[in-house]
């Protein structure tokens, strides 16, 4: 009987380990043998819940059962009520993390108490602290095994919460070289496959990352976006190099156009065109 | 203020300090009567009269009756019968247009050859002249070889509106012989380009039958029409630099459309041009084709029109089945936009241009969002943003979130205000042009000093020298050619050569800056 109970528990745990949110009672019932009575099933649920191997969640008005790893369950067993409360809030925040101030407000714990709880959870490797690229002064907590979301980490362009200008610049230059070297306009997919083939980036870059890279190049005025008809009739965005030149844009060609102190310049002032060193240097640089 | 200082320097440069001083007083003090002008300028009545006469002749000042507002150009309006008070007003835009004279002369050369260039130059130098006087001056200066050829060309230029009637003069029959004096004896006329005014002239009958006065038309170079031609050239340049597919045919098609709308395209503020028919465009393209072997087909024309109408460019729009209009407002905005982008690129680099485009695209954003979207290191992006704010290219609006307007709780949204940006660019261009002019003057003074003779300084004793001749003497190129270099040492020759090169550099820079001013203001 005990072995039957263990086997049935294993079946329940296996069934509840699928899906990100667990399974409903009906799904577990379907995976169990038909001779298992509802009361027996309830007993099994209670036993697993008591040992922390099963977690109960409510979603869209329905109850879901989710398996908890044995190692984690053993750790959670040893938690106090406050620690369990804090842990559940951090777990609920998912991969976006939760701010310590929000934790304090929700759990209604004093700061010193909360700090102690968080420290214990960190020691048990149940939670980990990190900082968001958007709000560098805020300390966030999330579950130890989870990877932070892109919103928080900033995506592939950020390293240690700082913008990785060097990495971005390398990708930018390679993409620009590819576009300029192409005889016709290129799609995002073509750019992605070229950059991936170069093996510059260790982590996988998504379609959206390449789109944001190309959009930056459009803002710089080195690339333009067009729409072409594909074979199936839909319009596809393509990119080609461009150079927006105007023969009437001449203000930047003279020293006064790029002078940092042009606002202080006057005919009879200390800075004046008669004695301007920038103009003198310009004349000398253009001497034939 | 830079605009008025620039105008004063232009007048100083072209006419002299006396005329520049008077123009400055008129432009800064507003309309003045003759007496007021004498008082505020601290000049004698004779000098004021002399200066006004020249400025009126070159359309740099206009005179009008105080009560009725009726405009008339009179060389000596203080002598007009009737006793109405006459006010004088400076025409600042005309003064700025003088920077463009070399381009007008070049335009005349492109359209009418060397003879046309000479005729245009004479008219620009002298302001107003009668038909015969234009030819006479050209012949007497040795620039026109045949008066018959010049005559027919001048007729053609009048028909094609490069030259227009500027007024009338009443001459006694014996006054027609002297070309220098003839331009000074106008009584009263109105400018044909001012459509709001009716043409007026009086027939003045002399009591002495033997000295009957003749009404003579006076002509001037039609700067407004030539400005229009330059404006169209700017549009054509833009199209050529934007469109890459089939660019030669597209440029030819667009040129044909512009030449068809040119005569009617008077209003700079209109959004679209007058419509043109496809057949007319085809005929114009064929007439402009260098040889009959390059005949344009209907298919080629249709392809070019489709490219011009593309949503990406949208330089022209179709009306009905076979009519097209030029999107003037869109072209002007695009030209200004390109000029702004180039300036920002030169002053603030690629990062500044990126921030500018981002703000244009996203509208108003917070600094934090901007730094994320710009894909730049935070410090660099912040530095560029504040540098552009200092230059007036971006603006910031404070949106308070609490009723006490506490700045710590306010949102600061960054955005681009295009009209303010263009205004700042225009003032910057005025200042740069002024600096070039000042520097040019300094180099001219240096040149004169090196040569050892006071070539450029005109004597204040103007009564001994006809005014127009004195003004013409100010052109350095004429003087340079008459300098005898044989007597100069090697070192002096080298220095003079360097100075001439630098003078040329600044003259070219002024022309290029005027292009920028035209792009922002006159397009």
Which helices and strands appear, and what pairs or packs with what?
The complex is a heterodimer of chains A (288) and B (523).
Chain A: H1 2-16, H2 25-31, H3 38-51, E1 54-59, E2 62-67, H4 70-77, H5 81-93, E3 98-99, H6 100-107, H7 111-123, E4 127-131, E5 139-143, H8 150-153, E6 158-159, E7 162-163, H9 165-181, H10 188-198, H11 207-219, E8 223-229, E9 235-241, H12 255-258, H13 277-285
Helix pairs in contact in A: 5-7, 10-11
Chain B: H1 2-14, H2 17-29, E1 32-33, H3 34-41, H4 45-57, E2 61-65, E3 71-72, E4 86-90, H5 92-97, H6 101-126, E5 129-130, H7 131-140, H8 147-159, E6 163-172, H9 179-182, E7 213-221, H10 223-242, H11 247-261, E8 276-277, H12 278-288, H13 298-309, E9 316-319, E10 323-326, H14 328-362, E11 365-366, H15 367-373, H16 378-391, E12 395-400, E13 410-415, H17 418-451, H18 467-472, H19 476-481, H20 490-522
Antiparallel strand pairs in B: 1-4, 2-3, 2-4, 5-7, 6-7, 8-10, 9-10, 11-13, 12-13
Helix pairs in contact in B: 1-2, 1-17, 2-4, 6-7, 6-8, 7-8, 10-11, 11-12, 11-13, 14-16, 17-20
